[in-house]
Structures are given as C-alpha cells and as structure tokens.
Amino acid sequence: MSELATFVRLGFRHITDLAALDHLLFVFALAAIYRKCDWRDMVGVISAFTVGHSITLGLAASGALQLPTTLIEFLIPVTILLTGLENVAVRRRDQAPLAGGRRPVFAGVFGLVHGAGFASYLQGIFAGPIVVPLLGFNIGIELGQIVVLGAAVLVLAGVDLALARLRAPDARPSVHRLRVIAVSAVVVVLAAELAIARAPW
Question: Looking at beta carbons, which pairs linking 21-24 to residues 24 or more positions away fall under 8 Å?
Fold first, then answer.
C-alpha cells in the first residue's frame, strides 16, 4: 500500500471511528436542523466546516501554527455544545442570527478548532515530510465525513418517520422541530460531558 493510501485510510478511520465521538457529534449537530429539501444549505455548511478544518490541519501539521493540545481538546466539545444550543434556541431559521450565509461562517470558524484537533492526531503518528501524509489524511477525513453525513441524514429521516407515526399530523411543535430539539438535546448532553472531562483547569 502506498504512503498516500495509508494516510487516506488513517484519515477515514479517524473520522468514522466511534472513538472520534466529538467529530461525529459535530456533524450530527450541524445536520440536525436540515430536511431533505435543505440539502444545498447542508452541503454549504459542511463545506465551510471542511474549509475551516483543512486550514488549521495544514498549518498545525506543518508546524506553522502551534496550539496547546489540552485547550484544543476542550474547545472541540465546546463548539459542539454551542451548535446544539443554537439549534434548540432558534425556532425560525429564516429569522436566525446565523440564517443565510452566516451559518456557514459559524461552521467554518468551528472547523478551524476541529482541524487543530486532527493535526495533533496526525503529528502523533508520523515523522518526516508532511505533504503526502497531510494530503492523504485530509482526503480520508473528507471521505469519512461524507459517510458520516450520509448516516446522519438516514438517522434523522428515521427519527422524523418515527415521530410522525407517534404524533397527530397537526400537533405542535412540528415533527421537524421536535426532531431538532431531541437530537440537539442528546448532542448537548454528550458534548457537555466531554467538555467537563477535558476541562484544562
């Protein structure tokens, strides 16, 4: 197996492994507010997250940016917690502070934090020239993220279906809103536990 393929595999496994619960939770938190008809918006937000984490992954893995690992590991669940809380707090997406083009910016900024986390993992598993490992790892991360996003869409659709069968069609809140609250609440609880466990003080 080539060096590139090895690091593609490592990146894919890193993002899809249940041990990487924080990154899985963040993708679920980002996807939780979207319906199938919102797929363009979801792709835009996930793409912004990709750009953000790619920037800091490259800078940190190459040594151009030095960040304290303990702080980054704490900030990652904080970004998940804030995303989940924003999901619950905002009832009308079209009137939200992060509506339109602002939510991708929000995801991109949080992606910067996650990229630093990816970099600390990458730095721990190799030594030597950075270009091929960085490229392969990043490709693997993106492929894994597509798989996680696909799984998130299926899980969210399943939650919608289950809630629709349990509730009257005209019940309030709507099935979609109830799903956003339920999924985001689970994400918030798990992210809070991670943040407390990783608190640097």
Answer: 21/190, 21/194, 22/76, 22/77, 22/80, 22/117, 22/191, 22/194, 23/76, 23/114, 23/117, 23/148, 24/148
26, 110 contact by CB (below 8 A): yes
Q: Is the peptide bond before 169 cis (omega within 30 degrees of 0)?
A: no
- Break the chain down into helix, strand, coil percent, rounded to 5: 80, 0, 20
Encode pLDDT of 122-164 as tens digits. 777 766 777 888 889 889 998 999 999 999 999 999 999 998 8
**Of the ranges 1-10, 55-64, 189-198, the best mean pLDDT one:** 189-198
DSSP assignment string, 77-122: HHHHHHHHHHHHH-S-GGGSTTTTTHHHHHHHHHHHHHHHHHHHHH
